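User: Structure please.
Assistant: Input sequence and predicted structure:
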Amino acid sequence: MIPFLLEPLSENCSQSNTTKKLKPKKKPSTPILTSDSDAISTKKLPKKPKLQTPTIPLKEIVCNYIQSNSMLHARILCYEPIDFEEFHKQIKTDLNLKITSKELMHCLDDQCITFTLRSRKGAFTSVMRAKRRHK
Protein backbone atom coordinates (compact mmCIF):
# COMPACT_ATOMS: atom_id res chain seq x y z
CA MET A 1 0.00 0.00 0.00
CA ILE A 2 1.36 3.41 -0.96
CA PRO A 3 1.12 6.02 1.79
CA PHE A 4 -0.83 9.18 0.97
CA LEU A 5 -0.98 12.48 2.76
CA LEU A 6 -3.91 14.83 2.65
CA GLU A 7 -3.20 18.47 1.93
CA PRO A 8 -4.06 20.89 4.67
CA LEU A 9 -7.06 23.10 4.24
CA SER A 10 -6.40 26.33 2.45
CA GLU A 11 -6.84 29.75 4.03
CA ASN A 12 -10.19 30.38 2.42
CA CYS A 13 -11.45 27.20 4.05
CA SER A 14 -12.15 25.47 0.82
CA GLN A 15 -11.65 21.78 0.88
CA SER A 16 -9.57 20.11 -1.68
CA ASN A 17 -9.51 16.43 -2.38
CA THR A 18 -6.06 16.33 -3.94
CA THR A 19 -3.51 14.05 -2.42
CA LYS A 20 0.25 13.90 -2.71
CA LYS A 21 2.56 10.95 -2.55
CA LEU A 22 5.18 10.96 0.13
CA LYS A 23 8.75 11.05 -1.10
CA PRO A 24 11.17 8.69 0.57
CA LYS A 25 13.38 10.39 3.10
CA LYS A 26 16.99 10.96 2.10
CA LYS A 27 19.77 9.50 4.18
CA PRO A 28 21.72 11.96 6.29
CA SER A 29 24.70 13.47 4.49
CA THR A 30 27.15 12.93 7.34
CA PRO A 31 29.02 9.64 7.05
CA ILE A 32 28.76 7.21 9.91
CA LEU A 33 31.76 5.10 10.84
CA THR A 34 30.87 1.68 12.09
CA SER A 35 34.22 0.97 13.72
CA ASP A 36 37.71 2.36 14.08
CA SER A 37 39.12 -0.28 11.77
CA ASP A 38 37.27 1.31 8.82
CA ALA A 39 39.20 4.54 9.23
CA ILE A 40 42.62 2.99 9.80
CA SER A 41 44.38 1.58 6.77
CA THR A 42 46.17 -1.65 7.41
CA LYS A 43 49.66 -1.81 5.98
CA LYS A 44 51.64 -5.01 5.85
CA LEU A 45 55.18 -4.85 7.08
CA PRO A 46 57.82 -5.90 4.58
CA LYS A 47 58.80 -9.50 5.13
CA LYS A 48 62.35 -10.57 5.68
CA PRO A 49 63.77 -12.40 2.71
CA LYS A 50 63.79 -16.14 3.21
CA LEU A 51 67.12 -17.84 3.66
CA GLN A 52 68.14 -19.87 0.66
CA THR A 53 69.63 -23.32 0.75
CA PRO A 54 73.13 -23.40 -0.71
CA THR A 55 73.51 -24.89 -4.19
CA ILE A 56 77.30 -25.26 -4.12
CA PRO A 57 79.18 -27.28 -1.47
CA LEU A 58 79.35 -25.67 1.95
CA LYS A 59 83.12 -26.10 2.07
CA GLU A 60 83.52 -23.79 -0.96
CA ILE A 61 81.08 -21.24 0.43
CA VAL A 62 82.91 -21.02 3.76
CA CYS A 63 86.33 -20.92 2.09
CA ASN A 64 85.29 -18.09 -0.26
CA TYR A 65 83.67 -16.17 2.59
CA ILE A 66 86.79 -16.41 4.78
CA GLN A 67 89.06 -15.32 1.92
CA SER A 68 86.82 -12.33 1.15
CA ASN A 69 87.06 -11.12 4.77
CA SER A 70 90.75 -10.23 5.21
CA MET A 71 90.69 -9.74 9.01
CA LEU A 72 88.94 -13.06 9.57
CA HIS A 73 91.33 -14.77 7.14
CA ALA A 74 94.36 -13.39 9.00
CA ARG A 75 92.98 -14.59 12.37
CA ILE A 76 92.44 -18.08 11.00
CA LEU A 77 95.94 -18.21 9.48
CA CYS A 78 97.36 -17.32 12.91
CA TYR A 79 95.33 -20.18 14.46
CA GLU A 80 93.29 -17.78 16.61
CA PRO A 81 89.99 -19.39 17.58
CA ILE A 82 86.92 -17.63 16.20
CA ASP A 83 83.66 -17.28 18.10
CA PHE A 84 81.38 -19.84 16.47
CA GLU A 85 78.02 -18.21 17.28
CA GLU A 86 79.19 -14.86 15.95
CA PHE A 87 80.67 -16.43 12.81
CA HIS A 88 77.54 -18.50 12.15
CA LYS A 89 75.27 -15.48 12.54
CA GLN A 90 77.54 -13.34 10.36
CA ILE A 91 77.81 -15.83 7.50
CA LYS A 92 74.04 -16.44 7.50
CA THR A 93 73.18 -12.74 7.32
CA ASP A 94 75.92 -11.74 4.87
CA LEU A 95 75.28 -14.54 2.39
CA ASN A 96 71.54 -14.97 3.11
CA LEU A 97 71.98 -18.75 3.30
CA LYS A 98 70.36 -21.40 5.43
CA ILE A 99 73.23 -23.18 7.19
CA THR A 100 72.74 -25.31 10.28
CA SER A 101 75.25 -24.99 13.07
CA LYS A 102 76.05 -28.70 12.94
CA GLU A 103 76.94 -28.53 9.21
CA LEU A 104 79.07 -25.45 9.77
CA MET A 105 80.91 -27.10 12.68
CA HIS A 106 81.74 -30.13 10.55
CA CYS A 107 82.92 -27.88 7.73
CA LEU A 108 85.19 -25.87 10.04
CA ASP A 109 86.55 -29.08 11.58
CA ASP A 110 87.29 -30.52 8.14
CA GLN A 111 89.31 -27.41 7.29
CA CYS A 112 91.08 -27.44 10.70
CA ILE A 113 89.70 -24.02 11.67
CA THR A 114 89.60 -23.54 15.43
CA PHE A 115 86.50 -22.05 17.03
CA THR A 116 85.04 -21.56 20.50
CA LEU A 117 81.57 -22.20 21.83
CA ARG A 118 81.20 -19.62 24.60
CA SER A 119 77.51 -19.97 25.30
CA ARG A 120 77.72 -23.76 25.54
CA LYS A 121 80.63 -23.77 28.01
CA GLY A 122 78.45 -22.86 30.98
CA ALA A 123 75.95 -25.62 30.28
CA PHE A 124 78.72 -28.18 29.84
CA THR A 125 80.52 -27.31 33.09
CA SER A 126 77.30 -27.46 35.10
CA VAL A 127 76.67 -30.99 33.76
CA MET A 128 80.19 -32.02 34.73
CA ARG A 129 79.71 -30.66 38.27
CA ALA A 130 76.43 -32.55 38.60
CA LYS A 131 78.12 -35.81 37.58
CA ARG A 132 80.89 -35.29 40.16
CA ARG A 133 78.36 -34.79 42.97
CA HIS A 134 76.54 -38.03 42.25
CA LYS A 135 79.67 -40.24 42.41
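The first strand starts at residue 4 and ends at 6.
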